[in-house]
Design goal:
The chain is an alpha/beta fold. About 35% of the residues lie in helices and about 20% in strands. Helix 1 links the parallel strand 1 and strand 2. The protein binds NADP nicotinamide-adenine-dinucleotide phosphate (NAP).
Length: about 325
């Protein structure tokens, strides 16, 4: 399998390379793609050195699969060209996620929707992926009415420049204006740009993508997305209201059994999910499960996932494995 990684010099692209190695897809040739300024650099994959090329050069090599993590504009411009050549595209940007003809996939939740006709498949927003892993088994059992989520998102979610901004400020330097305010020693309730309804685009991604992935437009979701001075690992406080009565012990059992999740809920021993514990892991951690006594049929939980792994690269590689297992990539 010839695999192009578009954005291979970026944070998600670099993680993509690691995960492609770990997940043992039969990659016979890697084609790392970045901008003109990175041509001349190289990446190491399975012990071999691969030179970085432009997208035009990559197209000439006729890849079977392209994993895109190079921003929305690049995906909008280039994904169709790769797809027209018969290359399966899995796109990490927000460019194609809400397009009515493009599937938005978290394999554990809706992997069944993928067909041989899907040449471009969208990878959801990082915060949405980790939340739907928890919502899905609970929705199947108790039917969710409403979700209220507040996020605590790491700076690596902004890419390499977000990490540099935090570390520069921590080391006494100034910022480059990556965020509208200082991020070190601060918390910024503003991710992506504001929309006319007062919510940010990141918040609206969580609302709209959750319904699309879960295949249920009746789900009510409201979100507040917040940037915090954490390097890797997004955290979420999630309040869930069910249509039906639920049982806390059964919720714990359902989540402990759900694919892609690890239940970390032992408050007697101060054990609950934290970003430092999830960074570098493919699984999403869930804990602090407790009844919400302020209204019927409601509970709270705390969800933490590695935004570069399950929030981006791991999910994309899992989609690639799904396509391969169905015989859609030779
Ligand atoms: N970070 C996360 O947690 C996360 C999670 C989910 C989705 N995503 C999405 O993934 C994408 C990349 O994010 P990132 O965090 O990895 O950003 P990043 O660290 O800034 O990396 C961006 C990468 O894209 C490449 N690139 C930019 N324009 C290009 C073009 N026209 N042609 C080819 N390559 C181009 C860059 O190449 P150069 O090095 O040559 O500039 C670099 O390799 C974004 O769409 C982002 O929304 C990120």
């Amino acid at each position: 399998m010839k695999v192009a990684v578009v954005g291979a010099t970026g944070l998600v692209g670099g993680t993509m390379l690691k995960i492609l190695e770990e997940h043992r897809l039969p990659v016979t040739e890697l084609i790392p793609v970045a901008t003109e300024k990175s041509v001349g650099k190289a990446v190491i994959f399975k012990g071999l050195r691969y030179p970085v090329v432009t997208a035009a050069t990559a197209l000439e090599k006729q890849p079977d699969l392209a994993l895109f993590s190079a921003g929305g504009a690049t995906s909008l411009a280039l994904a169709p060209t790769f797809a027209e050549q018969g290359c399966r595209v899995i796109d990490n940007s927000s460019a194609w996620r809400m397009h009515p003809d493009i599937k938005l996939v978290v394999p554990e939740v809706n992997g069944n929707v993928v067909t041989a006709q899907d040449m471009i498949i969208a990878n959801p927003n990082c915060s949405t992926i980790q939340m739907v892993l928890v919502l899905n088994p609970l929705h199947r059992r108790y039917h969710i009415k409403r979700v209220v989520v507040s996020t605590y998102q790491a700076v690596s979610g902004t890419g390499q420049k977000g990490v540099e901004e935090l570390m520069n400020q921590r080391n006494g330097g100034g910022g480059q204006g990556v965020y509208p305010h200082r991020i070190d020693l601060n918390v910024i309730p503003h991710i992506d740009s504001f929309t006319a309804n007062g919510y940010t685009k990141e918040e609206m991604k969580m609302v709209l993508e959750t319904c699309k992935i879960m295949g249920d437009d009746s789900l009510k979701v409201t979100a507040t997305t917040v940037r915090v001075p954490v390097l890797t690992g997004h955290s979420e406080s999630v309040n869930i209201e069910f249509c039906n009565e639920f049982d806390e012990q059964e919720v714990m059992a359902l989540l402990a059994d759900a694919p892609g999740l690890v239940l970390v809920d032992n408050t007697a021993n101060n054990q609950y999910p934290m970003p430092l514990d999830c960074a570098g892991r493919d699984e999403v951690l869930v804990g602090r499960i407790r009844r919400d006594y302020s209204q019927p049929n409601s509970m709270n939980c705390w969800i933490v996932g590695d935004n570069l792994r399950k929030g981006a690269a791991t999910n994309a590689v899992q989609i690639a494995k799904l396509l391969y297992s169905k015989g859609f990539i030779k």
